Amino acid sequence: MEPPSVTSMAKLLQEPFDPMSCVANVWPAPTPGAQDTVPYAAVVDAMVDISATSSRLECVKILTRLLLAVITRAPADLIAVFYLVINKQAPQHEGVELGIGDALLLKVVSECCGMTEARVKEAYQQTGDLAEIAQNNKQKQATLVQPKPLSAKTVFQSFKQMALMSGKDVMRRRTDTIKKLVRDAQGAEVNLLIRALQQKMRIGLAEPSALAALGYAFALQFLGARCAVMTLDDLQNALNIAASTLARIFYEVPSIDIVLPAVLSHGFLLLVPRSSVFARHQRDLSIRPGLPVKPQLAHPTSGISVVLDRFNERKFTSEYKYDGERAQIHYENGKIHVFSRNSETHTDKYPDVVSVLPSVFEKATVTSFIIDSEVVAVSPETGALQAFQVLQHRGRKNIAEKDVTIPVCIFAFDILYLNGEPLLDRSLEQRRAVLYQIFTPLPGKFAFATHLDSDNVEDIQKFLDQSIAAGCEGLMIKTLEEEATYTPAKRSHFWLKLKKDYMDGVTDTLDLVPIGAFYGKGKRAGVLGGFLLACYDAESDEYQSICKIGTGFQDEALEKLTGELRPSFTAEKPRYYRAETAGVDVWLIESQVWEIKAADLSISPVHYAAIGLVDPAKGIALRFPRYVRTREDKKPCDCTAAQQVAEMYRSQSLAIQKEDVVVSE
Ligand code: ATP
């Protein structure tokens, strides 16, 4: 595949576009004096075009133009339109979900599309596409009164209301709301509504691409007619600045409700780090307690000597790599929030963490903070560290402190914010000094990550052995002074993980997404018995197949997985999956992430992982993969990236070459 040239986006977006006339067929100009609002049809039209386009750049262009039209003509609708595009109703950490089951939708489709419920069910079982059934049959229905066109805002607000509904009668109220929407919807709107409600709306653009399109739209709006006379390099530069700054802001303030109004009121210049507008408002758009920061991540490394080479004279520290669950703990105005690695709210899961925290800092001097830590299960008798699997046995939601049977200890390793002040730009050495000054360890409940500041290979080796003996996975090695700021969402080369496994020559586990499945045979008939797994390539926004797997599963586990995955079954291979179709019984809309251990990686004629990164025309495959566990703390797009697969392959080849040298010596 040809890699896109560095100015390809600019080339596409430089084509003339008039937000008034180009979308006129689905979004006519308002009557004089009336307010311009975005019809749902305009959003649907863009989605349909995107679904039918195979080029990612072309998809981004379509979305950019829709967003540009919205920013220009009806900015008050931008939040609703953007939420509809990414099919969410609120920021991720708020845990707001539509939660509409197929049973309810079957009922609504039957009532609104003139079919019996049994007939809808039968058709659904045959085709697996409820949205298509609804659209086709709704079209056949004669309507006496022409419904009022749906607006994007109405659809979004109805979705949000449904997601927030609770208490008595909730099913009836949800049914009524959906019926109203489906009755007013026309043509492809019916299809998109049902897909959105089923959470199967993936149109071929992941959230990072949608955010990039939003950044581009703000840049184009600011540049206006100048776009046409700019060089492609200058235009691309402006597009890149807007997209990357917007992404960075979202890593720190992951809330459309906060970020979009700010960018709308200050415009593109808010996204230009060298502008005075940016300087004036930077603090308003940086991290704050209550909103999860995308955590900094680490790169695997295969040995202490590699660390020394990589850090090249920079001062560094080694910390125990605890085997628990990442917890970003926020405090402000007496309130504590706990967020997972995946930015989900885990405050209810850890009432014991919430209750212990106030006793480890001085409330008189500390008004707010954000710390990064690992929560680890400890033995109630001895206080010894327990493996991650033990922590997994704790309940997940609404746990009462009195019911906690598996105690945990918090191991704090970083502080990102204190008393109204973000600390991201300080070095780790400085942040650690603040952490130590503010908190007081409480045995078995709150501790600092054990560390060693030494560049002596023997000392580090001893420290690594010690960490393993204490029940840790190995070490995290981090720069202390230079290149030692905290960069949200970044997989940093200045944070290295050194696990015992890598040193034994076993590759790191991979976190992969099941994208297809095969039915079992013999006693496993009727149950899924094998899966096609994929990694994710953000560059091309596609899931790339990496291996088939059928080992590592107990029979009961397969039954459980079959049940869990059933709602994700889909008859056709999604367009954003790069995989051979042969032999796959059922495709799965991406929903789960599995940790997989493999013997090694090899260049493959049938799989597509990291295609173009190591071999121009072939992908990489895993050999002898085994299922380890389901990673509930990761979303599909957080799975192992194609780039990481390529790096693993390269470092494996390097290790083999080194062995060859030793043998031949
Ligand atoms: P990744 O987070 O890199 O995608 P992962 O979730 O599989 O991968 P690991 O590869 O095991 O995690 O390593 C990183 C994780 O190690 C961190 O996200 C954090 O939860 C944990 N961790 C344990 N101890 C530390 C420490 N001292 N410093 C930073 N992270 C630590």
TrEMBL record:
One GO term describing the cellular component: mitochondrion
EC number, as in UniProt: 6.5.1.1
UniProt xrefs under Pfam families: DNA_ligase_A_C, DNA_ligase_A_M, DNA_ligase_A_N
A Gene Ontology BP annotation from the UniProt entry: cell division
Ranges of residues in domain ATP-dependent DNA ligase family profile: 401-537
Cell compartment(s), UniProt: Nucleus
Reaction(s) catalysed by this chain's protein: ATP + (deoxyribonucleotide)n-3'-hydroxyl + 5'-phospho-(deoxyribonucleotide)m = (deoxyribonucleotide)n+m + AMP + diphosphate
Signal peptide location: none
EC primary class: ligase
Keywords: ATP-binding, Cell cycle, Cell division, DNA damage, DNA recombination, DNA repair, DNA replication, Ligase, Nucleotide-binding, Nucleus
Molecular functions per Gene Ontology: ATP binding; DNA binding; DNA ligase (ATP) activity
Superkingdom per UniProt: Eukaryota
Family: Belongs to the ATP-dependent DNA ligase family.
Protein name (Swiss-Prot/TrEMBL): DNA ligase
